[in-house]
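**User:** Here is a favour to ask of a fellow structure person. Please take any protein you like and set down a full record of it. No explanation is needed for now; the record alone will do.

**Assistant:**
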Amino acid sequence: MDKVALRLYTTVHLFIISFIYNNLNCEPNVHYNESIVLLEDFTMTQHHTVTLLNLHPVIHSAHRYEYVGGPYEKERIGSSYALHLFTEGKGSMTVNERRLALRRGDLVIIPPAIPHTFHAAADNRMHCYNVYFTVQGGREVHDKKTDLSFIFSDAPSPNRPEIYRDTPRCSELEELPAFISMSTWPYLIDSFMQIIACDQTTGPSSRKAAELLLHSWLLQLSDALIIQPESIDPHISSLLVAIEQDADWWNYSINTMLNRSGLGRTRFFSLFRLSTGESPTAYLLRLRMRKAALMIRESGLSVTEIAEKLGYPTIHYFSNQFKQYYGISPTQFKLSRW
């Protein structure tokens, strides 16, 4: 899916969310691959009245975080839904006593009242984008900086049990897989990061805009999971997983991808676009730009050093490509709130 199509798709969803489906109560019949870890494996018995179409998410916090074994990473229990998208490093999580290995590109969805723990590898810290939200009927939060003690507390004894008991739930959201490798949908990785960027801006409507983007993103994720079995070629799926798990993925070229896929050139390009919505060149660019943004923010390296590490022959070429992708130069990006 190219940028224009994605923007159009998101806009259509936002109009649907805001004006058409406000009072609908639809319950689509969705079935997922049984090999995927499902949220229903973790959830507690609750009454459910909110659907994906009318859930109206209320964001309590959205931010980037580096898991290094800090105080917020021990066993805890949340009063909100939590979305954790891991973009670098590796480690694991324990969710309701079930251990999940984590790599770059993995998404974990945690419902309210579910005990969970983060386990970061000592030599490979986990970088993550986190969104904490409740659904329609939840506690309204008007202050952008929500106290983390509301979002979660130490498990197994939450300090305010009435919050966990009264939190509204969405059964359709909890029917989605709890653990998803997002490597097949790079546009959903980028749009998830955009939710955090939008929420962190200082405009008077930034929180509401981020909530609309989050609702649209959840609908797109649900749609992507529904069509997954029919649309993704196994050769391409295996290739994408291999790239996401390879520590030196930025050294990949089109020929490397072609050889790893085991397909002929014409069929490779055709199946790659059909499976991902974009060309192999656009996919590699997206990965490099995402890695570049993370390195600019967190590595402490100069722009020249980052360009060299990502395989660019000159800083001029890197800077031009970065500006074409993000709309600002690497230096401006480092100083911005994105």
